[in-house]
Amino acid sequence: MKSFFETVRLERVHELARQLATLEAENVPLEMALGRTLAGDLRADQDLPGFDRSSMDGYAVQSRDSFGVSESSPGYLRLVGDVVMGRAPGFVIDRGECARIFTGGMLPAGADAVIQVEHTRQTDERTVEVVKAVAPGTSVMGACDDARAGQVLLTAGHRLRPQDVGLLASLGVHDPVLVRRPKVGIISTGDEVVPVDRALAPGQVRDVNAFTLAAQVREAGAEPVVLGLVGDDAPALVQATAISLDRCDLTLLSGGSSVGLRDMTRDAFLSFEGSKLLVHGVSVSPGKPFIWVQNGRHPLCGLPGQVASCMVAFHLFAEPMLERMLGREPRSFARFARVSARLGRNVSAPPGREVYLRVALVETGQGLSAEPLLGKSGLLRTFTQGHGIVRIPLGVEGLLQGADVTVMVFP
Amino acid sequence: MKSFFETVRLERVHELARQLATLEAENVPLEMALGRTLAGDLRADQDLPGFDRSSMDGYAVQSRDSFGVSESSPGYLRLVGDVVMGRAPGFVIDRGECARIFTGGMLPAGADAVIQVEHTRQTDERTVEVVKAVAPGTSVMGACDDARAGQVLLTAGHRLRPQDVGLLASLGVHDPVLVRRPKVGIISTGDEVVPVDRALAPGQVRDVNAFTLAAQVREAGAEPVVLGLVGDDAPALVQATAISLDRCDLTLLSGGSSVGLRDMTRDAFLSFEGSKLLVHGVSVSPGKPFIWVQNGRHPLCGLPGQVASCMVAFHLFAEPMLERMLGREPRSFARFARVSARLGRNVSAPPGREVYLRVALVETGQGLSAEPLLGKSGLLRTFTQGHGIVRIPLGVEGLLQGADVTVMVFP
User: Fold this and answer.
1) What's the pLDDT tens digit per position in B343-352?
2) Which residue among A147, A163, A214 sits closest to B31, beta carbon to beta carbon?
3) Residue B267 and residue B246: Cα distance in Å, rounded?
4) Do B161 and A215 touch (CB under 8 A)?
């Protein structure tokens, strides 16, 4: 068996990805921060909520006044005021006293707990009957319960979820400092590929990769710049690459990396001053013909043309680069949840390759079964009908039915 | 113990949500389709790929010509042509013949398999040595392998992932018919709440809910319309609600639904002609004071003001409504993956409530442990430091350490 590429292992690609620089930081309006990445650690500049607050509607009390009370042996407290929402109470709770308070209201000095309104009854204008004993701190959110001044709440590289956007809002950070989103130039090539709105002649297929890659780029937190479909000829490849180098931070060229066209793609990438070939071939399946030429800070990537292989290659190679450019740890399938399952049937793996097998998850009653989706790796239905991916490590010739596997689930 | 609301069970809310109408359909450019929802079934109007294609670089052959060949006993085939990418080959493969073909090339008539180039050697201009036997169909993607004409590939209500966008592209659907995204009016209220860019006086907190809800709405596939912060007074609530009824498909008002302000919110919602109270109080914690007033096709929702409770309530009540308006099955925590874990410590649940407990997931070596995040339910850190939510069903007084639980993992 001949070796066509000097293949490297996937770990080597991630090692190289780790050397990519994080993009610069920028201030972003908080409304636009969802899914973006923190450029620095987020530190609380104040205690949060900053004062003791009630977490219930009820009465603020000194808890020891409630000790021993019950339905059959109620206690009676003197009502000395109402806590007005959004203001510091102008009174203190002494022994035997209470104040009406709503959820979120500021606890008056002296009080250390709240008795829920359900466990009270106002007997006259100045008297409240209480029937439940509470411990100090009951139904109270402490002044530092959400955060303590100086505490690191989120770290650099964290991708903001709704709750994190809320945390920024609670701290008054209305224009957080975030990593700029990488712009990703997407180029499709292949003489058999036609634009998506074109009728197909025999032998032709539509330009699917431009759409799947743009969507994957967007989900990875970057910005796709679709540069279109170019023919399998050197001047066209060079021209499209030049535009992407000029406008974007990373280039994804799909199609030109199989044995027939790989040299042309590689040569187009290497025709630019400062270009350096880092990777040509990785011991994975699918994704083996991957090309990485680095030009300054800009990775130029050649991905397989087959649509499903191209999707896997994006997750294996391009997403870790984008993760790094966003200041995160480079990792394949970074956004995929992991679940345990048993393999539904025997599968074999070609020697010398790490295999990324598409599977469907089926609930069997004895737990999840991962059913390999047979069919050629180029088939999109391995992604549309599948639920996730199982990795068969290098050196393993196959896995038996019933083997415990970890499935990386499509988000 | 007094009952303050006529509470209903969560299932009742979902039953009512099921009666909401799906919004109208619209054509959307495929570039904008990621995360959107199909309005109708997607049917293949043609076979895909539509012709037999090679999934490897190599030689197209009649497989029977390879039977019995091996490294030690090679076969020899006459090279009769090259398959040009994107064109139907103008020749036929007869017995003893082969043609050079690249990945994605159209199989010539007569050929039924491809021998990978790694298992071949061109010995002269017209002769190829082959050293591996292949079965019929080897390294060939059949004409209908991705789809058969008439087959339903995706069903109405499906939310489009990158692979689904690719499937649409492969079918030439460049402006799919999708359900319009619901516009969601977001109103914050509470006299203690101030805008996010304001310095805090004692007793005040910032308007976090506007940001968390807007982000949650966006992740649910709908469009947030932030209508701002209004005071706890009836005319202001009515005015803000009127704007939302006019501009949006659903309203989320946070803050005015606790016992102190619930009547004001409810009355504001009910002040509009055609309004009907559907729900006032649900037997869940957090989220109990939820209000649902229906006005025509527009749900008016009152959510708790406490930030974490408000986030849970969104998932419990509002997201199922949005799911339904998008043509999907209404379900709480619809986008959350489920993982199995063991509970890290005992927890108790208040009687008569279904509890949604925030937990952190910890890998123990014996599988995942779900550690309850103690602290008041209003605390945002139960979301920022947690990984997911465990449901304690109605009628269960608590769960013991070590109990098997299902964790709904934050996306």
Assistant:
1) 999 999 888 9
2) A214
3) 18
4) yes
Give the number of C-alpha atoms closer than 13 A to the C-alpha of residue A165, restricted to the C-beta side: 24
pLDDT digit string, tens, across residues B41-62: 999 998 988 999 998 889 999 9
* Pick from A166, A197, A304: CB nearest B208: A166
Structure tokens at B159: 């939310």
CA distance B110 to B95: 8
Average pLDDT over residues B216-240: 94
A391 φ/ψ angles, rounded to the nearest 5 degrees: -95, 130
- Joined together, the tokens standing for residue B127 give 């002769």
Distance from CA of B18 to the nearest CA of A (A): 25
Mean pLDDT in residue range B185-195? 93
For residue A273 the two structure tokens come to: 């001053």
List CB contacts (< 8 A) between A287 and chain B.
Answer: none
Close Cβ partners of A124 (under 8 Å, ≥ 6 residues apart): none
pLDDT in tens, B99-144: 999 888 999 999 999 999 999 999 999 999 999 999 999 999 999 9
Residues B68-83, buried b or exposed e (16+ Cβ, 10 A)? ebeeeebbebebbbeb
- Residue A253's beta-bridge partner residues? A187, A302
- Residues A20/A325, Cβ–Cβ less than 8 Å: yes
Alpha carbons A17 and A20: distance in angstroms, whole number: 5
Place of tokens 């997911």: B388
